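Example record

The entry below shows one chain as it appears in the dataset: sequence first, then structure tokens.
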Amino acid sequence: MTRIFILALAAATAGTAHAQDLTAVTFGTNWLPQAEHGGYYQSVADGTYAACGLDVTIAPGGPQVNNRALLLAGRIQFHMGGNLLQAFNAAEQGIPLKVVAAHFQKEPQVLMTHPDQGLDTWDSLKTIDLLIGENGFQSYYQWMISEYGFSADQRKPYTFNPAPFLANPRSGQQGYVTSEPYAIETQGGFKPVIFLLADYGFDTYATTVEVMAKTAEESPEMVQCFVDGSAIGWYNYLYGDRSAADALILEANPEMTQAQLDYSVDKMKEYGIVDSGDALELGIGAMTDERFASFYDKMVAAGVAPKGIDVKSIYTLEFVDKGVGLDVKKALTGE
């Protein structure tokens, strides 16, 4: 796969640094450009990063790209983490990595069922086969077994093909609330029943920003600019004019469509993926000691994470929880 780079706009608002004075940094995402990355593209498109001194390049991830390895090698400065399990793994291996922001208060992971089948309660999922991929089986499904008594025998391999789910109305399938339900609606002609795992206690943060500990210690202004700029970008993307950001995403990912972007944004807002919980008062990107401890304890109980990790070593609250961007939201929404 050809690696795509989206360059930040050099022009910034009046009174900001000239392009030659900007610090060039790279943010590696964990998948192809999509609405779930919209806040970052927004801050590239409207000059928010440039306004505080950064020339940000977004380096998309994908099936043949390992941006996390580039972070560890010092070739990029910022990386998009999936959820906290990766950070736990880094701590276990002694990798000096820091989570500096969490732009998804809820991981978008869902299970879906067919409507009109009596499969509209969490407990009803225990009566059917569930199509779940290997990563899901080794992570959140182990928590479902530990926390709720689901059975390993229920799980059937998911190959990222919706055909088996569409063909069997008495089955369930994994997905992201921003993506797979849209595919089911367009291909199957019906709206699936959606169970967002975060709403049942799978309380990991997602779409985190990771840096090496050395970066956070030696370049705190750079990290703060990226964290603040990203928060403002997410408010503008969710509640303002996101057309320029969408244009960048569509240019970088020709397989993406505007209809999919619109659907994903609607679902992020409907389910509070980005702006909910602590973010409502502390600002987008918010993190707390309590959430890290809660999720870690659940993963230890489920046998997914090892005991004995110093959880506080994998993150810092230095750059978040300052209410950055709340004024932007108020101006855009009146709330």
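Notes for this example: The CA atoms of residues 165 and 171 lie 6 Å apart. Residues 220-239 form the longest helix (20 residues).
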